[in-house]
Design goal:
The protein is an alpha/beta fold. The protein has two domains: 238 residues; 226 residues, Carbon-nitrogen hydrolase (Nitrilase/N-carbamoyl-D-aminoacid amidohydrolase), CATH 3.60.110. The chain has 14 helices and 13 strands. Strands 1, 2, 3, 4, 5, 6 and 13 form a seven-stranded mixed sheet that branches. It has a six-stranded mixed sheet with strand order 7-8-9-10-11-12. Strand 2, helix 10 and strand 3 form a beta-alpha-beta unit. Helix 2 packs across helix 7. The radius of gyration is 25 Å and the shape is globular.
């Protein structure tokens, strides 16, 4: 192949890399065309085929850019085009890193297996680094309304991503294959697809030990609805009023008495312990309904820091146990290394105090039950809810605001992740949002009750409790460790094979010249 032919090939691959990244994005919300997912992964394998390490990395970056710029498009209008461009560009580099690995892994036997492991290891890396990483866009998150979704109870988010990636790489392997090997490769692909859909036929049933009744309050946000701080006390008052109305409905028999009430994140965006009117409003609402209310509050922690907390507010003893958000958003809720760089421009100037990370891994005790809580983006991380479930949580709750994203598709993407968490843990899940997607989700991911966005609504629902652990909960972090170890070992073996091939090609060229 001449240099001109090779350049033309790279140009063609670049075009199809962008197309493949867009296909992968279309498998997620808002389009949710999940059948495109294996095609998107297969396109990554095909566009990086037979390229050098550096060129495969470049094509991988283009694939990642097309995927991330599309998948995170909600940032452009909700956060700002500068943040959208910066984050999407950075996340694209992880797919470039994966592209660098492709020429090494393709030299190994059963290449799709190692490529799928590498894809999964890449997702693990970017889900935790830098700072707290960004789990958005993991393959598993696109599976909620497919037969593969039930598999997350068996293998967890990481295991499901691996199987989906493996299906995509086997599809590419089949497309590349010579006629004599297609039957075997087709059989391998069918086998993986069978593994993916089998849990839909044989779902993991978690034994229910008891029931409780939860009231999910969506109080709504004043004004346009996309700015919590537009009228922070008005947001709190909306939730107070909705809870007082619930208490009145319970007293007249129009609503069932709940065992506890769930308010969303930012139901008070000012410190409820320091602000007198807010404190009195919460106190009045809790006393009226006469059951614990899990309040979502921003709490001061000195002059320079704040905490984003779920606070168990008891009608007798007042505020008690708290869960603190574990994964604040870098450059959105805190400025990393502020002592070295303290920006005072654009949206960054609004982050005047840094939000501290919580460390709690034990469930909250609410109305006599153990409850695993997560706040907003926490739901996308594997170290938040699963740890609490393994420590005895019987029910899941998510407190979220989402007001900043109310006019975008971020709402649907996060709700899909939330539903998968219910399936993974085999638990009922209640999610309260200020004005986004509030609802109650069954252990199979079914939405049994929901509130319309940008409305004031109260959902009262009896839910099941369980202490049984799904296989995914028992596996914990071991799938991530396994696929990372597989990738590292395969890269070492692949590097030797790639180097031998390069040396052999160089020797053959020298002999031809001689």
């Amino acid at each position: 192949m001449t240099a001109a032919d090779y350049a033309r090939l790279v140009l063609q691959r670049s075009f199809f890399a962008v197309f493949g990244g867009a296909l992968l994005a279309a498998s997620f919300e808002p389009l949710a065309l999940a059948w495109l997912l294996p095609i998107g992964v297969a396109s990554f394998a095909l566009v990086t085929r037979d390229l050098t390490v550096r060129r495969a990395g470049l094509v991988g970056v283009l694939f990642g850019a097309a995927f991330m710029f599309s998948h995170l498009a909600w940032m452009r209008t909700s956060v700002g085009p500068d943040a959208w461009v910066a984050l999407s560009s950075f996340e694209a580099l992880f797919y470039g890193l994966l592209g660098l690995c492709v020429p090494l892994l393709r030299r190994l036997p059963v290449a799709p297996l190692w490529l799928a492991a590498a894809w999964t290891a890449m997702e693990t890396l970017r889900s935790g680094w830098p700072f707290s990483g960004l789990p958005w866009g993991r393959l598993a998150f696109a599976a909620i309304d497919t037969p593969a979704a039930q598999g997350v109870a068996y293998v967890g988010m990481t295991g499901l991503s691996f199987l989906l990636a493996l299906a995509g790489f086997l599809l590419a392997h089949l497309v590349e294959s010579a006629p004599g090997t297609r039957r075997l490769r087709a059989a391998a692909l069918v086998g993986v697809l069978a593994v993916l859909v089998t849990p839909a036929v044989v779902p993991y049933d978690v034994a229910q030990t008891d029931t409780t009744t939860v009231a999910v309050v969506q109080g709504n946000v004043p004004g346009r609805g996309d700015d919590i701080l537009f009228d922070a006390r008005g947001v709190t008052q909306n939730h107070v009023d909705a809870t007082l109305q619930l208490a009145a409905d319970v007293a007249t028999g129009r609503a069932e008495q709940p065992d506890f009430v769930l308010w969303p994140e930012n139901s008070t965006a000012v410190d409820p312990f320091l602000d007198g009117p807010v404190n009195r409003g919460i106190h009045d609402a809790v006393r009226a309904i006469d059951v614990p209310v899990v309040v979502g509050g921003i709490v001061d922690d000195g002059q320079d820091h704040i905490l984003n907390q779920g606070i168990v507010w008891d009608p007798v003893s007042g505020p008690g146990e708290r869960y603190t958000k574990q994964h604040p958003v870098p450059y959105g809720e805190y400025i990393p290394y502020r002592n070295l760089w303290d920006p005072k421009f654009g949206q960054l100037a609004l982050v005047s105090r840094d939000m501290k990370s919580g460390t709690r891994t034990s469930p909250l005790r609410v109305a006599g039950i153990d409850l695993a809580d997560a706040i907003c983006f926490d739901v996308a991380y594997d170290d938040v809810m699963p740890a609490q479930v393994r420590d005895g949580a019987e029910l899941l709750t998510v407190q979220t605001s989402n007001a900043s994203f109310i006019f975008t598709h971020q709402i649907e993407q996060q709700f899909a992740i939330t539903r998968l968490r219910a399936v993974e843990a085999g638990r009922w899940l209640a999610v309260a949002s200020t004005n986004g997607r509030s609802g109650v989700i069954a252990p199979d991911g079914t939405v049994v009750a929901s509130a319309e966005p940008r409305t004031t609504s109260v959902l009262v629902q009896e839910v099941g409790l369980s202490t049984d652990l799904t296989p995914a909960m028992r596996l914990g972090e071991w799938p991530s460790r396994l696929f990372t170890a597989m990738t590292l070992a395969a890269l070492v073996a692949g590097a030797f094979a790639y180097r031998r091939r390069q040396e052999s090609a160089g020797s053959a060229e020298e002999e031809t010249v001689a």
